[in-house]
User: Which sequence fits this backbone?
């Protein structure tokens, strides 16, 4: 039983690390976009989704941008 648990935890850790690597470039791209450079939500969305090939990456970029910017907003208060 201990070997099965250890194997399961190892697989979980490997899949988790792979998922983080998979989105690293999309997350970095989203973090580089500044709201001050985009006067409308449409221009912001276009900048976030520029050069991304699939809907999953586009959704991840938008999610990351929102998460980072909401987090920064609450930290400054």
Assistant:
């Amino acid at each position: 039983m201990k070997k099965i648990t250890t194997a399961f935890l190892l697989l979980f850790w490997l899949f988790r690390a792979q998922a983080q690597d998979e989105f690293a470039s999309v997350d970095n791209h989203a973090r580089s976009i500044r709201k001050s450079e985009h006067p409308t939500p449409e221009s912001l969305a276009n900048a976030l989704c520029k050069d991304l090939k699939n809907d999953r990456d586009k959704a991840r970029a938008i999610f990351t941008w929102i998460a980072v910017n909401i987090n920064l907003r609450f930290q400054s208060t």
Remarks:
- Helices lie at 2-22, 24-32, 41-49, 55-75.
- Residues 24-77 form one domain.
- The chain has a mean pLDDT of 84.
- DSSP finds four helices and no strands in the chain.
